[in-house]
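PROTOCOL LOG
Step 1. Enter all chains and additional molecules of the complex.
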Amino acid sequence: MKIEDEIKQPAFKDNHQKALINLVFTTGWVQQQQSALFKGYGLTLPQFNILRILRGQHPKPATVNLLIDRMLDKTSNASRIVDKLEAKQLVTRTVCPSNRRAVDIRITEAGLELLQRLDAELETRRNGLQTLTDEEAAQLSNLLDKIRD
Amino acid sequence: MKIEDEIKQPAFKDNHQKALINLVFTTGWVQQQQSALFKGYGLTLPQFNILRILRGQHPKPATVNLLIDRMLDKTSNASRIVDKLEAKQLVTRTVCPSNRRAVDIRITEAGLELLQRLDAELETRRNGLQTLTDEEAAQLSNLLDKIRD
DNA sequence: GCACATTAAATGTATGTACATATATTTGCA
DNA sequence: TGCAAATATATGTACATACATTTAATGTGC
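Step 2. Run joint prediction.
Step 3. Record the structure below.
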């Protein structure tokens, strides 16, 4: 559906305004698709993203700072997302021996297994952008980079 | 900065994954820019968006249902965002005479004046996508429409 | 006219976001 | 050495999101 119809706005001031609204709307749309998938596994989107970062580090631990560094949303509160994952026994938290201010966070076997089950489903969806060709995906990425210049 | 450096991930599996991560990251980036602007006026981003819809309706009233229909994030709780705006006397709420289940929401003079002050500042920023040409903005919009196909 | 479904909005609860502040540990340097 | 600054994380608060439930008003079929 065209963005004009999605939000019932017949016209936009210019292409910039239209692109901005489309950007926000479409990103929300994609994230909602993803969330719906994770929900069946008892995970939220940020919890999934943290788990994925921890798997990338495995078997090395990660600190909260490392998680924030790699997260897409830098201002979110990694501490409390880890709280939830710890309660579900998908991660462990231990004081870092070499720096007792820091905390070593590790993904558990249960966490790895959960991610593995999700991988299969995600693969079939090509990350939610399955309607784009390879070239279009690259083009989109370039335009997005230019926005942040 | 390229997306690889923004989130310290040296490579991506394919262009689709890279575009998806870039989409989420860049939209967050743009929204944070906007939020920073609104903060100086005591508004949050969703509050601003609701106010703008109400101005579009003015002097006709809007119902909560109409707000949800036009909001970018369909699942957010318009009722409670209106609560905050009402507390700041930027909108009024009255029971709709023709359907007493519904509520007529109107922007106040103070709300209109606040938006007018924000307009001037937003204009100079070209909606946060000022680094794109007109053609690139149109191209971006087309790619985003295709994602939702 | 009345029971029952439908509709509009509000409310409850869990989670997340944004930002300020607190607590504990480590570092650096006078 | 001692003490202030820096660092790592946790906590507090306000607001928003996501989704289920509740309350009140309206519409519909019998």
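Step 4. Note key features.
Residues 89 and 105 of chain B are 12 Å apart (CA to CA).
Chain B touches chain A through 54 residues (CB under 8 Å).
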